[in-house]
Amino acid sequence: MQQVQAVVARAKGEPVELTTINVPDPGPGEAVVKIQACGVCHTDLHYREGGINDDFPFLLGHEASGTVESVGEGVTEVAPGDFVVLNWRAVCGECRACKRGEHKYCFATHNAEQKMTLEDGTELSPALGIGAFAEKTLVAAGQCTKVDPEARPAAVGLLGCGVMAGIGAAINTGAATRGRSVAVIGCGGVGVAAVAGAALAGSSPVIAVDIDAKKLEAAKANGATHTVDSSQVDPVEEIKRICAETYEGAEGADVVIEAVGRPETWKQAFYARDLAGVLVLVGVPTPDMTVPDLPLIDVFGRGGALKSSWYGDCLPSRDFPMLTDLYTSGRLDLDAFVSEEIGIGDVEAAFAKMHDGSVLRSVVIL
Ligand code: APR
Ligand code: ZN
Ligand code: ZN
């Protein structure tokens, strides 16, 4: 066991606190990771606000990279010294979903079995099974994916959550490719990553939609060919018009990614699709939201698909090293998502900045 400094949310709505926690030595199948960088995500704030569950105290932070310090018995995935990006859940490799090659639907995912604790022995709930606003954290070895150690920790750590969700929504879920049009509604960190993913895949046009002009600038800098301010114009008509300009007869975009998580933007995405288009929902709705009232004939009248993208439908062992290599070779600008590097004591200040629109990601450097 060892003691490290970490950011803990003790009670609903209370500001987070920098405190000492106990990190056990890794047991069978576990690893202790020395964290180098961890992005501040909306989900951390949702935990602190009690919006996810009531399992306080939470050890926050979950978009992280670091170096494996030690591993427990039977660990073969990683070894001490490996530079890794962390993912939410290790897959089992043995259930029906894993056996048919669809690890993203694994029925038996797991995290570390042992618990990290506060100094008084209270068990901590690590955010998304990680808890990486900490000098060191304990995870299941399968939550660690080795990536190129030359990569900047702050940039590749973001692959552990929001950036992966966005890029994966475009590439994995939406199957964006060259010869296809993509529209992204909502250009926060997730939406801009979806724009970058669509551009990386060679799609054109890549249409970014938001109600905030600053967000549209960020989307443009990351590969959007067109921007639509939906506070000024009808985004459905604009998307249809732009797509028809490129592909004669197109009735909308081949892929529309909803990255806000609201019924009204989902409805825009539904109608902005080409007849055979795919709608990808990656924004996370709240439990009280319902599918907008739609004439069933409008669902029938279009083919295509209505999909959701969970964690960008990623396979960390495939996607983290691949995207890291695209980053180090200059084809994917992950640095664009790192708006500022901050200290471990600045997480609360980063939460406050989240809503002013200027920050894609604040990243804690350790
Ligand atoms: N139309 C278009 N864009 C909108 C609208 C709207 N009606 N309402 C909000 N937006 C834009 C905001 O201006 C912002 O740029 O959606 C974006 C949301 O971005 P963020 O709040 O930064 O959220 P982000 O981290 O990108 O996550 C997006 O995915 O992970 C989930 O919980 C997260 O639901 C959220 C979504
Ligand atoms: Zn499984
Ligand atoms: Zn996150």
TrEMBL record:
<dbReference type="InterPro" id="IPR017816">
    <property type="entry name" value="MycoS_dep_FDH"/>
</dbReference>
<keyword id="KW-0862">Zinc</keyword>
<dbReference type="InterPro" id="IPR013154">
    <property type="entry name" value="ADH-like_N"/>
</dbReference>
<feature type="domain" description="Alcohol dehydrogenase-like N-terminal">
    <location>
        <begin position="27"/>
        <end position="148"/>
    </location>
</feature>
<comment type="similarity">
    <text>Belongs to the zinc-containing alcohol dehydrogenase family.</text>
</comment>
<protein>
    <recommendedName>
        <fullName>S-(Hydroxymethyl)mycothiol dehydrogenase</fullName>
    </recommendedName>
</protein>
<dbReference type="GO" id="GO:0004022">
    <property type="term" value="F:alcohol dehydrogenase (NAD+) activity"/>
</dbReference>
<dbReference type="GO" id="GO:0046294">
    <property type="term" value="P:formaldehyde catabolic process"/>
</dbReference>
<dbReference type="InterPro" id="IPR002328">
    <property type="entry name" value="ADH_Zn_CS"/>
</dbReference>
<dbReference type="InterPro" id="IPR011032">
    <property type="entry name" value="GroES-like_sf"/>
</dbReference>
<dbReference type="GO" id="GO:0051903">
    <property type="term" value="F:S-(hydroxymethyl)glutathione dehydrogenase [NAD(P)+] activity"/>
</dbReference>
<keyword id="KW-0479">Metal-binding</keyword>
<comment type="subunit">
    <text>Homodimer.</text>
</comment>
<dbReference type="Pfam" id="PF00107">
    <property type="entry name" value="ADH_zinc_N"/>
</dbReference>
<dbReference type="InterPro" id="IPR036291">
    <property type="entry name" value="NAD(P)-bd_dom_sf"/>
</dbReference>
<keyword id="KW-0520">NAD</keyword>
<dbReference type="GO" id="GO:0008270">
    <property type="term" value="F:zinc ion binding"/>
</dbReference>
<feature type="domain" description="Alcohol dehydrogenase-like C-terminal">
    <location>
        <begin position="189"/>
        <end position="327"/>
    </location>
</feature>
<keyword id="KW-0560">Oxidoreductase</keyword>
<dbReference type="Pfam" id="PF08240">
    <property type="entry name" value="ADH_N"/>
</dbReference>
<dbReference type="GO" id="GO:0005829">
    <property type="term" value="C:cytosol"/>
</dbReference>
<dbReference type="InterPro" id="IPR013149">
    <property type="entry name" value="ADH-like_C"/>
</dbReference>
